Amino acid sequence: MTRLPEYLKRPIIDTEKTKTVRHILKNKCLNTVCENARCPNKSECYQHNTATFLIMGNVCTRNCRYCNISSARPLPLDKAEPEHVAEAVRDLGLKWAVITSVTRDDLPDGGAEHFAQCIYEIRKLTPDTKIEILTPDFKGDISALNTIIKAAPDVFNHNIETVRKVFKTARPQGNYDVSLEVLKYIKDNSNIKTKSGMMVGLGEDYDDIKSTLNDLHSAGCDILTIGQYIQPSKQHLEVAKYYTLEEFEELKQIARDTGFKNFQIGPLVRSSYKAAEIAC
Residue 168: in which H helix or E strand, if any? Predict the structure, then answer.
């Protein structure tokens, strides 16, 4: 594995706050993408009583070559999970809750109704909490997307993840155009803010990035995140390039030039990093 630049390293923080977050999550038998995807911002977020809930289990029906979440046959859905997520949101005192999931191609609706139930349960217990969901593509199924629209999250996030040129290598079971269509359908048929994110360092160039940002903007995407890809293990895709801090400043200007006003771009930026700040 390529040696990690110093600016991509984060210290491990273990305080009473981080222990409290872990205790609440463990007590409710909940997964987080923070743990399962080895997010470098985990300690910082836990310090601020924040976590991104990972629903519908911790194994995925797809096998994206950059992702640390395991691919295997998933377990049946936990029907109590939406209520437990809502209780954790209440116990953590979250004003902004972020919910994501593994991809569940084994389910007829891809898990859309399960997302909706999490939204409904949170609003029962903490009606003032804003809710952001980060979903798979649901194979572009309109019925599943309508289920999400009816539940009306405050922000709908679906990540494009990488540029068209690299997409099939990184996401062999995904489809670049379907991801764009999902974002566009939500934007065209609701008042929900839409969001998407991508990684750099997988073999793309600046023209590829500009093209992808133009595609996202044309799909009506409101909010953008861009961060550096970090190889989780030797079994995952290698890092083609570590972007410098100066290059990340260039990416910010490209985003502005494309028309994005709300974005978070930096080496350690991930999909839900400082989610509330860039959504407002």
Answer: helix 164-170
Q: Which CATH class is domain 6-279?
A: alpha beta
Tell me the C-alpha distance between 186 and 181, whole Å. 9
User: Alpha helix (H) ranges present in 192-268?
Assistant: 206-218, 245-258
Sequence ranges of the domains in the chain:
6-279
Q: How confident is the model at residue 30 (pLDDT cuts 50, 70, 90)?
A: low
d(CA 164, CA 40): 26
Answer yes or no: are the C-beta atoms of 186 and 215 closer than 8 Å. no
Torsion over CA: 120, 126, 128, 129 (sign): negative
Least confident of 39-48, 71-80, 98-107, 228-237: 39-48
**d(Cα 131, Cα 171) in Å, to the nearest integer?**
27
Read off the pLDDT of each residue in 50-65 and give the average, rounded to a whole number.
86
d(CA 6, CA 2): 12
Q: What is the pLDDT of residue 35?
A: 47
SS3 217: helix
